[in-house]
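Reviewers of the previous submission asked for a worked example of the structure-prediction workflow described in the proposal, so we include one complete record here. The input consisted solely of the amino acid sequence. No template or homolog information was supplied to the procedure at any stage.
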Amino acid sequence: MALDAGDTFGRYELVSWLGRGGMAETWHAQLVGAAGVTKSVLIKKVLPEYADDEAFISMFISEARISATLSHGNVAQVFDFGQVEGEYFLAMEFVDGKPLDKVLKRAMKSGMPALPVPVAVFIAMEMCRGLHYAHSRTDSSGKPLGIVHRDISPDNVLVSYEGQVKIVDFGIAKAQLQRGFKTAPGVVKGKYLFFSPEQARGEDVDARTDVWATGVVLYELLCGKLPVDGPPHVVMMKIAHGEIPSLSQVRPDLPEALNRIVLQALHPDPARRFATSHAFGDALAGFLYANHPRFSSLSLAHLLRVLFRGDLLNEGRELAVPEDFLEELKAWRQPVGQDQMPTVPHLRALPTPRPHTAPVVVTRESQEEDAPALPTAEISPVRRSWAPWVGLAALLALGGGVWWTQFRSGPEAPVGGTAPETPQDPKPPVVAEVDAGVLVDPSPPPPPPPPPDNGWTEAKVRALLDDVYRMHKSSKELPRAAKLVQTCVDALPDNADCRLAAGITYEKLRSIDKSALHYRAFLEHAPATDLRRTAVSERLAALPTRKPQEQTPANEADLESARSAVLMYLARGQLKEALDAASQCVTRLPREPECHLLRGDVLAKLGQVAESARSYERFLAFAPADHPRRPSVLRKLAELGATGAKE
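From that input alone, the workflow returned the following structure tokens.
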């Protein structure tokens, strides 16, 4: 039957037509109850031409049966199912927002190369939560239902203007409650670009197929393109053989830790993938909250409100977006990639600019096998329209040429520590381009120092440090990198860039005392306006925790996993789950002080003063005398004692 906005459809009043898919159309509707109470819903109605298609109707009913059992914040819930004048329909939760594929397209159209790293990771993490809930569903007797979505793609993920992420369309999910409705052997359903290798081969699939598809979605969100594209036969062949290019080949500025997480989700062997969506989500949460601790669903909501502001205004709506988020957005729209960075011959020494008001953000990467990836600071370049994130900086993997090139693109400290101004270039002082216009620094440049007389030109220093940072990519090259950078330090002991490179190199070699020596020298010789000072200061303060401890690699992995889990649960306000994770850490590693510290912090948040104090005391019993957290724990114990006395 033909429908129009304002018509009645069963118990529902149609508000507006939303779209038409291959076999169904969708409407925004509202359920009108007593006393004028209304509830917005989405009506999904089978098209008339498929009303007699038994296979499709069976699948549609299957979707209703499966989805009606699901109730989770990351799954769009089904409220009703039935027929109106012979046409089947679903009434489901109305998500006030946009499909993820449209979010990505709009972001790229607005000037972003892809979604910002924290946005993409957060969306994928939320998808994992919803999928794990569905995967782990059981019937009333506790028997697993074996639900697998099998059609995860950006158009089956909705993002609301409030920052919620919802998975929809379990219509082709495989579950035992389908009463025998199974895919015939060798038949594949869904979208082939998101098929797992086993799905592409027509084999039976399990929850790890959804892990793969979520990995493909995250790959596309981060890189702006799919890992494999082309006609079906080409894509299916590449997927079946696991021919997936590394993210670093497409977007070299992505942190290596994130690259490893995504590629594990996209491993062609299901046994070597994340075993569950929960494990995948935990890995993403550990990365997100270690590097972007302030990111939340509100950040995602603000992004959507900006991207679709015109759509909202057309609907007579204007949702608030704070000014500080607009500053983040400038950075998201114009990130600096390797292909945008100037090469060494085109660099010119610049006078030191006025310090920027944005903080330098330190990021933390997970440890590598041979040498741990180090935190770094993201610098706002002087000559580009890239405002800082206000606490949510774009992440780059420290080590290698990328970090050095990022520093070169910002304010530079040339040989001798003062920036000479080229006599042939009578340009005014530093001009920093911003979206709103041009800001000119009126302060006069410092007088040029005399050229070095030891043969170490600025170009020579840059070339040497380029080689040093390239060697950081391989742990076997680190000793050579140390010898090379030491020549720079010996020749130019007051050069801040040489000192910084030496500090990073020795930290990667676990020579903590030498690293600290060079970091201190950097802080002594770098100008007060050098935007790297904050990051280096924080690294220097954290060095004592990187000294070798009596822990096995397995213990380090357990501890890192516990930290990530506790941090994630605390950020989500799930204190009970955070306490469980901290307690498990204590059980597995009873002599590890960090586990007792984690448990003490969670118990303090729960108001369990006596238990929290006992955990802090256990921390002090096991922590070495020079542990950097001892003073803060002693203060916490004193505060808890005062609180207990009042009670």
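The first strand starts at residue 8 and ends at 9. We consider this example representative of the routine output the project will generate in years two and three.
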